[in-house]
């Protein structure tokens, strides 16, 4: 393996994982982050067993597993508390876990030496020739690298340069999230989702008796009505949902509720342009319906590192492109489909959807996400 000088743009989950793995395997890595700190705004995250299995050969896997809460199934109910189906999580050799986003980020940070993370460096543009890329930052800094990893998220500057027409696509719904300390309405390895005409409400166990909750409601992009939503508005909105939902919202503090409109991007044809590689949300932002966005970013990082350890750089990038474009396209499209079905609001369509969910076996539901376990990592 030839040691390379590598820049990673973005210190999110994708960027830090990639930087940590490439540094661990002997590369000269620098991370550039536009913000002036690494603090995270976030609540809970699901990390699939597919992701932990991929990460297993590397040091950071252990700590992530230790901090995670094993999750074994997800129960789907209607807003009237009628049982619809159960999704049994594929375990293989690893657990599916839930984890605080901040905790995950803290773990990833410890795998990249502090002096290699450059804050307040917003990438402005790049120029590349056959085997190097020159980076220009808004603060006037310029530097040349053998390889640049664009892990700069949904609104990636580098993706815009390579694919000017690839813009975030609004999914049609908005999402609120929070974390509370409250007794679980079900056992600590089971998540619950309630689907009703007013939206979806999810209750997900975290470690140490905490609960991560989220809800989605159909809305216009940047809908002003929801921008001013606070705890009492959510309580009123979901007051016809089961008691479990109302109890969670009652336990939520007035502050600390996160709100985001939901986006993905249309699948790209390639993640590689010369010596620039797109990774994570920059490459394949997906809606959160499968809980796989961060997980797929981690899988990208593992695949790229595995390949760079074994192959000359051009062959490694070609193979990364071939494996990751195809796999993440399936995640984007499947996740979009789940979101569409979950946000249905006409009474007739809800009736048909719920009937279909009730008659499907739990096994057939799990089969639909089986492909997640089959990602090739080199
Ligand atoms: C409501 C919701 C729930 C979710 N739930 C889950 C879940 O359960 N499981 C899961 O796996 N995923 C989940 N996700 C998805 C997950 O959060 C993302 O897929 C993941 O954070 C992407 O990581 P990333 O590193 O690619 O991008 P980001 O986390 O967006 O990081 C990008 C970084 O790049 C920096 N940056 C941007 N532009 C520049 C620039 N020009 N120069 C320098 N730095 C720059 C940003 O400041 C940021 O720090 C969820 C997402 C949402 C919205």
Strand content: 25-35%
The total count of strands amounts to: 19
How far apart lie the N and C ends? 15 Å
Percent helix range: 25-40%
Low-confidence stretches are none
The CATH homologous superfamily is termed FAD/NAD(P)-binding domain
In CATH terms, what is the fold-level topology?
FAD/NAD(P)-binding domain
Rg to the nearest angstrom?
Answer: 21 Å
For the record, the count of structural domains works out to 1
Biggest sheet: strands side by side, in what order? 6-5-14-15-16-13-17
CATH architecture: 3-Layer(bba) Sandwich
Oligomer kind: single chain
Count of helices? 13
Sheet with the most strands? 7 strands, mixed
EC number: 1.14.13.1, 1.14.13.114
Enzyme class: oxidoreductase
GO molecular function, one term: FAD binding
Pfam families: FAD_binding_3
Structure description:
This protein is α/β, with parallel strands linked by helices and 378 residues long. It has one domain (5-168, 264-374): FAD/NAD(P)-binding domain. Helix content is 35%, strand content 28%. The chain has 13 helices and 19 strands. It has a seven-stranded mixed sheet. Strands 8-2-1-12-19-18 form a six-stranded mixed sheet. The longest helix has 30 residues, at 313-342. The protein is globular. It starts with a strand and ends in an 11-residue tail after the last helix. 43% of the residues are buried. The model has no long low-confidence stretch (mean pLDDT 95). It binds flavin-adenine dinucleotide. Residues 9-15, 32-35, 45-46, 121-123, 151-154, 157, 175, 177, 260, 280-282, 288, 291-295, 297 line the site of flavin-adenine dinucleotide. Flavin-adenine dinucleotide (FAD) binds at residues 9-15, 32-35, 45-46, 121-123, 151-154, 157, 175, 177, 260, 280-282, 288, 291-295, 297.
């Amino acid at each position: 393996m030839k040691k390379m000088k590598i820049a990673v743009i973005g210190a999110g989950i994708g960027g830090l994982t990639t930087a940590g793995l490439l540094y661990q395997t002997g590369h000269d890595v620098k991370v550039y982050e536009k913000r002036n700190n690494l603090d995270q705004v976030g609540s809970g995250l699901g990390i699939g067993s597919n992701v932990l299995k991929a990460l297993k050969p590397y040091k950071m896997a252990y700590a992530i597993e230790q901090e995670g809460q094993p999750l074994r199934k997800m129960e789907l109910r209607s807003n009237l508390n009628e049982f619809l189906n159960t999704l049994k999580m594929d375990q293989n050799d690893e657990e599916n876990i839930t984890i605080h986003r901040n905790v995950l980020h803290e773990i990833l940070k410890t795998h990249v030496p502090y002096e290699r993370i450059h804050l307040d460096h917003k990438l402005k543009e790049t120029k590349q020739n056959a085997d190097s890329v020159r980076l220009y930052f808004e603060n006037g800094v310029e530097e040349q690298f053998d390889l640049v990893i664009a892990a700069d998220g949904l609104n990636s500057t580098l993706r815009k340069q390579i694919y000017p027409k690839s813009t975030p696509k609004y999914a049609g719904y908005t999402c609120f999230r929070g974390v509370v300390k409250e007794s679980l309405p079900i056992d600590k390895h089971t998540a619950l989702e309630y689907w009703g005409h007013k939206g979806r409400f999810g209750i997900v166990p975290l470690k140490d008796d905490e609960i991560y909750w989220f809800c989605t409601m159909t809305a216009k992009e940047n809908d002003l009505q929801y921008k001013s939503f606070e705890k009492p508005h959510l309580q009123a909105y979901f007051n016809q949902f089961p008691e479990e939902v109302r109890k969670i919202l009652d336990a939520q503090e007035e502050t600390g509720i996160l709100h985001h409109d939901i986006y993905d991007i249309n699948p790209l044809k390639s993640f590689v342009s010369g010596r620039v590689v797109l990774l994570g949300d920059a490459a394949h932002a997906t809606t959160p319906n499968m809980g796989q966005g961060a997980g797929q970013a981690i899988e990208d990082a593992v695949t790229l590192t595995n390949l760079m350890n074994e192959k000359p750089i051009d062959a490694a990038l070609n193979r990364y492109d071939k494996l990751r474009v195809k796999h993440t396209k399936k995640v984007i499209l499947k996740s979009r489909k789940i979101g569409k079905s979950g946000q249905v609001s006409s009474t007739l369509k809800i009736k048909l959807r719920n009937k279909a969910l009730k008659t499907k076996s739990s096994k057939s539901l799990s089969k639909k996400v089986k492909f997640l376990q089959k990602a090739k990592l080199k």
